Amino acid sequence: MSYQTPRLERVRDNVIRIHHPDVLVGPVSQLTNPVSASATALTVRNNEGFADDDLILIEDRGSSLAEVTDLTAAPSAGTSLTATAIIFGHPIGTSVRKILFDRAEISGAATPTGSKTVIATIDLRFSNDATDYIVSATTYAYYFVRYNNSNTSAFGEYSDA
């Protein structure tokens, strides 16, 4: 599978802004019943295409209530999804979509083709348009980012320097 290449939006004053991965790559559904905070059972319009250990984004990217959780059981045909407890309550009609990545690994190097040193692996904050990381230790001439899936440990490609 070919993964989306990540993009650094900005590196300025020790702040690295990471563009979020495209979320339109997997199945999408909507809640047909409201859910409260700490719920683990989600009733959706259709659960086709979802699988155990999938990462899901509840709400749309940029929403203050957007959150990522993972499915903890294989869905049987129908309208039910079982997930790790969610943080926020969500109303009927809220989008639920599979995403490939929920974290970003940030690395630095002395040259654009040099050996990369991992600085941090951080959660992507889908409640914002992008995720910012503040470099508080060693600074580098060049920075790179690649997406990561916390469930499968899969990595995407590195961004340009």
Characterise this structure:
The structure is a single chain. The protein is an all-beta fold. The chain is built from no helices and twelve strands. It has strands spanning 8-12, 15-19, 28-30, 41-43, 55-58, 67-70, 80-82, 95-99, 103-109, 117-123, 130-134, 142-148. The strands form four sheets. The protein has a four-stranded antiparallel beta sheet with strand order 3-8-5-6, with no helix packed on it. The chain has a three-stranded antiparallel beta sheet with strand order 1-2-11, with no helix packed on it. The two termini are 23 Å apart. The model has no long low-confidence stretch (mean pLDDT 92).
Report the major sheet: 4 strands, antiparallel
Query: Termini separation (Å)?
Result: 23 Å
User: Could you state the order of secondary-structure elements as H and E?
Assistant: EEEEEEEEEEEE
Low-confidence stretches: none
How much of the sequence lies in strands comes to: 35-45%
Number of continuous helical runs: 0
> What is the average of the pLDDT values?
92
* Structure classification: mainly beta
Largest sheet, spatial ordering of strands: 3-8-5-6
Q: Based on CA inertia axes, which overall geometry fits?
A: elongated
Q: Find the count of extended strands (DSSP E, 2+ residues).
A: 12
Backbone CA Rg: 17 Å
In helices, the fraction of residues equals under 10%
